[in-house]
Every structure is written in C-alpha cells, then in structure tokens.
Amino acid sequence: MTGRVETFxxxxxxxxxxxxxxxxxxxxxxxxxxxxxxxxxxxxxPAVRVSVLKVTLKDLPAGSIxxxxxxxxxxxxxxxxxxxxxxxxxxxxxxxxxxxxxxxLTRLGAPEKPSIEPVVSGSxxxxxxxxxxxxWSQELxxxxxxxxxxxxVLLQELYVNGEEIDLSEGGDHA
Length: 174
What we know:
Number of strands: 7
Largest sheet: 5 strands, mixed
C-alpha cells in the first residue's frame, strides 16, 4: 500500500534526479530538514531532501478529500563554493515549479507560491555546509486512493522502500 502523498514525494525526487544527475543524494525527508538531521545522518553533498511539511485537508462536495501539500526541497551543499552551488541547485528546482508541473501524476493541481530561502544558522556555517529551501504548495486530489479495499477497509499491507511490512503483527492498539 502506498498513499498518494508518498507517491507524490517519490515522483518529485525522481524528477529532481533527472534534472540534476550529478547529485550525490536525493531522497524523501520526513519533516523539516535542520541541524539535528545533519548531525544524525551522513549526507553526501550535493544533496536534496524532499519533504511535505504540512497537509491541509479539504472536503469536496463529491464526497472525496483533497489535500493542499506545503512542500520543500532542501538543498544541502558543502565545499568552498557551497553557497553558489546551493543557489544554482535551488534555482534549477524552482524552474520545475511551473504551472504544467504534475510530476508525472494525475489528479494534481499546479504548483503554487514557489519561493527560495536560505536556511541560515551559525552552526550550519561552522559545519561548512549551506542549506537552501525551495518551498511551494500543491493540491493533491482524491486523497486515500489505493489504500482502501473495495469494502472501504484500510489495506493490511504496507510497503516501505519496496519491502512489505505486515501490519497484522502489530497487536491490538485499542
């Protein structure tokens, strides 16, 4: 089972890998990228981490749910030219946020309110890295597609990185 939000994040990562094949790392990110994340994980630079920071749900008259995704692509660079490289990669990603960008998916609105902002902190500068955030919003329609069976029950399998996770072994959480 893969939900629409995860499919969206993976599609964005795939497109970024296509436009920037020299990236040493491009992956999905859970939440905001910050100094703690940098300290917990070894990140091969230049890198991009794609995250959905917030999901605002909208109930539609047809009985379906759509979601406005607040998204970020965090660019992480190092080296003596880290600032220039970070700005160039952020600009390249931002150019993909045009009105026709659907990341190869259906039932998706156009990217809205794109922006670029440096993530600046003294600790990051001391670590010798630059982090830029490319931010945008995008509406994802028909939330919940492909995660329920015909009876409206949540599917009992979950795939993480292509491996099936058995949800029935979790015990009773009531």
